[in-house]
Give the backbone structure.
Amino acid sequence: MGGVYAYSGFVTFKKRSDAELAEAVQYQTDAEKFVLSIPPEPSSIIWADLQVEPHKQQVLEAMGYICIAVLYFTYMPLVIGITNIATAINMGPLQPLWKGMAPTFGLNFMVGWLPTFLLTIFRTFFCLKDDAWAQKQLQSSYFIFQVVFVLLVTSIGSDIIGFTKTALADPFGLIPLFAETMPFATHFYMNYMVLQWVTHMSNFTRQDILQNYIIYSRMYPPEEAAEKAGEEDADFMGLGARTTRQTINLIIGIVFCTLCPPMTFLVFINFFISRVVYGWLIVYSETKKPDLGGVFWVTQMQHLYVGNMIYVLLMAGVLQGRAASGIPASIALSSLGYVIISYRRFNKAFSWEKLPFIELATTKFDDKEQVGAYCQKELIETEDDSAAYAVAGAEPAPSNPAGN
């Protein structure tokens, strides 16, 4: 048979219920033979990724995970190196203040660059529907790095390999390690939280864009200079990176709230500033971020459960080391079961991705306004090729597309 063949394509449905049924069906014995999902908006699709062969995609993803592992084990030496450089700088009369802030500054500097490192790996080796899914993958990976290299950095020291082995082989073996090191790191995290205030206000000034505008305004008219000044850093200020940083700030408050009660006040100020700063930036200044329908928020809630688990382990270890008997530690550790049950319930008891079929079948939905059509750019530029247009679906797409 003649025609145009590809590994991916788009199918449109007149009814939303039909699209949901088609997505739920397993079409072959091999469940990976046909993989269906709801596509993103046509304007944000990465067409090149849809053209990658499945076997090549698996090889690239394996290489991507290897790169993430290499980054994981080399990140700590980079943090220590930046911190040592910052500490070696002599600030004269301000040296005592700088010596206290330098370790936090070095950690914050590396945390700021980490999203760029991870997104470079995702965009190079992983096949994504659109760039919003790169931010979703960033949120999950970035959170692991934040927990290990920000929240638990004082427990790890410089032995990242040993810490990882303990965490994978014997998670409860981390309890005495947390109890020995983390209670003495409260001042470090208080400094870290205060430094977050400075970071938020720096973001509020949009200083990189302002500097670019000042430079371009000397060479171009104001409108053209504003256009050339560019947009905010899509890596550091993207939804995945931003939501993860806010999550880890809240987890720091949860984990240290008992060991250091003033930490709750510092965290409150942090989120008050965040509400003012990002409430303005998101609405009035920044470019509109892609919406995945609540995926980022749900992932944040899941990450908070992880923070609660770390808090339980920490407090059980502290009670074990300081109480006269093991009863207080056992009582504290028993609450870990409740946290795990709540986490499982949160994942299973609430339907947020799909509606029950009875509602799909009986409810009339308004068609969502769609920007663009599901037609690859190279095919649009083809002249007098009606077959290419038919396959790509150049006609305005119906309201319920499903991607394969």
The first strand starts at residue 10 and ends at 13. Strands lie at 10-13, 400-403. Confidence is low (pLDDT under 50) at residues 385-404. The two ends are 21 Å apart (CA to CA).
